[in-house]
User: Fold this.
Amino acid sequence: MTRIETLAIDGGLTMDRAVELRQRFLHAIAHADTLRLTLANVTEIDSTGIQLLMATKRTAQASGKHLELVEHSSEVLAVFALLDLVAYFGDPIRVPPARPGLRQTMPPAPDRSSCAV
Assistant:
């Protein structure tokens, strides 16, 4: 039987909360086969938050476990698009309904046509 631990992140996924969130994530990975992070209520995410998600994914994989990111907020989607991280995490993306007062445009995808290989 697969054990899934679901954690909802409310507020910022930022440097200010990195230690607290890291401890919660590691505890959940230790006690479950899958850590599912609900990101619907993430209001801001910075480079530390991105690094935390990436490190959590690596930790889960090294333990033979899984990290699932679900219900991405507009803020998370914008950063993932900007940094081209959607494929890295590999989770299905569902665009959330618009929230009042938020900009509804996504940054354009980077133009890779001129990149040398």
